[in-house]
Specification:
Among the domains are: 53 residues, no CATH class; 102 residues, 2-Layer Sandwich (D-Amino Acid Oxidase, Chain A, domain 2), CATH 3.30.9. Helix content is 26%, strand content 26%. A hairpin with a 3-residue loop joins strand 9 and strand 10. Helix 2 crosses helix 9. The longest helix is centred in the first third of the chain and has 19 residues. 36% of the residues are buried.
């Protein structure tokens, strides 16, 4: 985002509360390049994901970032689920996702013989990318453009004035203040809390923040999964416990959904039984003894477990009446895929 804003002629300063970039949601995810089949037509998630899919492949190729256009199988484990699969196909087509194909039980075996399913949706534009390499590449570009990045810097308070613009009070090893014409709140898990530090912002326009932890288990030893990602049908709050792999070929399963009150990356190993049950619905030959804890991530949701899913929120002065302020709320999955077009969209909003 900083790169796109700099291209518009702005002087840019990045404030990062951690000691390095991408320590939270940006790196603690599946590393999947999503296609855009799941999201409501016309939503930010849908439009940015479809565009981001193309841009991310182009960027990864141009910057020599490890990635693979694996394609993805979304499976219907029972005949009752096949209608949901057809609805997903139609939604993907409305979102302009190309080359979607419904495949029969017999043909699934040509893609992945070990998978148990009644039918599947093949989505060829899905893939995987090394999120750490992506973050490092973006960080390198920022440094090359002489953009200032201040690490270990936490914004404590934000004041708004007609004469001086927006003033940020920053706690660091040596605390400091910054006066800015534009402020982009892209704090991820902390975005809502950061917005509450803005003096004068209408409280009623800020969403409530929720945290949904996701666990990932890794599979040890040899495995038959070399080509395609494998997904169950999505639930309301998640894309399901899916199968993906990294640049070394290591298979991982996840994430699940575990609602928590605060940011906590500890691993709950008791989730294993639920993982085994979920995985065996499409891979009955799983040996549970080869499944081990890997890592956790947290989704910055702006809706709770009993509420309907929310779109990405890109909040501007039209909503909060503060010139030069853009708040980004609920940037969860498919945020990694959407990152490049989202940056362009935000840069075009600035004064």
């Amino acid at each position: 985002m900083a790169k796109e804003i700099s291209r518009k002629g702005h002087e840019v300063i990045i404030l990062e509360q951690n000691s390095r970039a991408g320590e939270e949601t940006s790196s603690r995810n599946s590393g999947v390049i999503h296609s855009g089949i799941y999201y409501p037509t016309g939503s930010n998630k849908a439009t940015l994901c479809v565009e981001g899919n193309r841009l991310l492949y182009e960027y990864a190729k141009g910057r020599n970032i490890w990635h693979r256009n694996t394609g993805k199988l979304v499976i219907a484990s029972t005949s009752e689920e096949e209608g949901k699969l057809e609805s997903l196909v139609e939604n993907g087509k409305r979102n302009n996702v190309e080359d979607l194909e419904l495949i029969s039980k017999k043909r699934i075996h040509r893609f992945q013989p070990e998978i148990l399913a009644e039918s599947a949706l093949y989505c060829p534009s899905s893939g995987i990318i090394d999120a750490a390499e992506l973050i490092l590449s973006l960080e390198t570009e920022v440094q090359q453009k002489d953009i200032i990045t201040s690490y270990n810097s936490e914004v404590e308070e934000i004041e708004v004035s007609d004469s001086t613009g927006i003033t940020l009070h920053v706690r660091a090893e040596e605390s400091f203040t910054i006066e800015a014409d534009n402020v982009i709140n892209s704090a991820g898990l902390h975005a809502v809390d950061l917005a509450r530090k803005i003096k004068g912002i209408p409280e009623g326009i800020l969403p409530k923040s929720y945290f949904a932890k996701g666990h990932y288990f890794q599979l040890s030893g040899n495995h038959p999964f070399k080509k395609h990602l494998v997904y169950p049908l999505p639930t309301k709050d998640s894309l399901g416990v899916h199968l993906s792999f990294d640049m070394s070929g290591k298979v991982k399963f996840g994430p699940d959904v575990f609602w928590i009150e605060g940011i906590d990356y500890s691993f709950n190993e008791s989730r294993k039984d639920d993982f085994v049950s979920a995985i065996k619905t499409y891979w009955p030959d799983l040996n549970p003894d080869k499944l081990f804890p890997d890592y956790t991530g947290i989704r910055p949701k702006i809706y709770g477990p009993t509420e309907e899913p929310a779109d990405f929120v890109i909040q501007t002065s039209k909503q909060h009446k503060i010139k030069g302020l853009v708040n980004l709320f609920g940037i969860e999955s498919p945020g990694l895929t959407c990152s490049l077009p989202l940056a362009k969209k935000v840069a075009n909003l600035l004064f």
